[in-house]
Design the sequence.
């Protein structure tokens, strides 16, 4: 973290953020801490910090990880929209949760007692705010395919361009071996979006018992939404009916469709993160064995 941050303001900010998380089975302050830890791993052991260079970008990564689910209600965007929740009304059905997390975060950061940005120039404040907005909005799963596709396309274009200017490179050369750069502000923002998405799913790389507890917490949170839907006489969303079983029945599909493309794309650029990918692959194998044993 940049040395200019005032320790007292940072401490007050972190305490207020912690108080701002609700006691939900999954989207809680413990989840925020877990995502922060995963982001730190990607920045340090995963090689992202050396690729980024600028401390401001690192600060954006840390703050976004801390705040990305601030004041989460334990209900997803679809539920908020279908029930005309005030957040859905306020944000015109566009990523109401993610917009709310950001608004709550910036309200805290604008307070006199925990305003961490006051020492930054106006231009740097604007840059930091934009990075955080891009990163947190990117955690809306409705944006997942778009972000992954854009990242993969950008990577392929950069690889092709680099290979054309580097004599003797094989067609199978990696982004790392070709030193593919993400120097354009838009490219850096996209790289940080991908980092937060990986960190948000960081428990997929955790030891199996730890990962299972996270999945169990998420399943219970989804069941509670299903209970709300049933009480409101709404159709119960898929995998949210506790009488029929939840997400533990479909984890292999989630890994195949969401997790593996995300982590493989990430590790094509930052190969130092490959141990994380191997851990994700190992947990997928365990879920496959679990599903086969429960048929």
Sequence:
């Amino acid at each position: 973290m940049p040395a200019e941050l005032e320790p007292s303001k940072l401490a007050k900010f972190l305490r207020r953020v912690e108080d701002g998380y609700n006691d939900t089975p999954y989207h809680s302050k413990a989840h925020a801490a877990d995502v922060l830890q995963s982001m730190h791993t990607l920045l340090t052991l995963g090689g992202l910090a050396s690729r980024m260079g600028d401390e401001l970008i690192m600060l954006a990564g840390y703050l976004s990880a801390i705040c990305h689910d601030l004041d989460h209600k334990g209900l997803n965007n679809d539920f908020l929209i279908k029930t005309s929740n005030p957040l859905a009304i306020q944000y015109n059905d566009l990523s109401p949760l993610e917009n709310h997390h950001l608004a709550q975060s910036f309200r805290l950061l604008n307070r006199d007692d925990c305003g961490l940005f006051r020492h930054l120039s106006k231009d740097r404040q604007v840059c930091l705010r934009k990075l955080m907005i891009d990163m947190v909005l990117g955690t809306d799963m409705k944006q997942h395919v778009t972000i992954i596709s854009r990242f993969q396309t950008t990577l392929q274009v950069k690889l092709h361009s680099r290979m054309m200017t580097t004599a003797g490179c094989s067609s199978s050369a990696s982004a790392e071996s070709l030193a593919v750069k993400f120097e354009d502000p838009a490219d850096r923002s996209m790289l940080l979006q991908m980092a937060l998405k990986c960190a948000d799913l960081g428990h997929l790389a955790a030891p199996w018992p730890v990962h299972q507890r996270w999945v169990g917490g998420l399943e219970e949170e989804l069941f509670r939404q299903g209970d709300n839907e049933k009480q409101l006489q709404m159709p119960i969303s898929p995998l949210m009916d506790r009488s029929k079983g939840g997400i533990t029945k479909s984890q292999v599909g989630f890994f195949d469709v969401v997790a593996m493309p995300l982590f493989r794309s990430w590790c094509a650029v930052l190969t130092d993160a490959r141990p994380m990918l191997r851990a994700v692959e190992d947990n997928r194998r365990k879920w496959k064995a679990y599903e086969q044993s429960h048929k």
In short: The mean pLDDT is 91. The first helix runs from residue 7 to 20. The two ends are 49 Å apart (CA to CA). The CA atoms of residues 7 and 70 lie 21 Å apart.
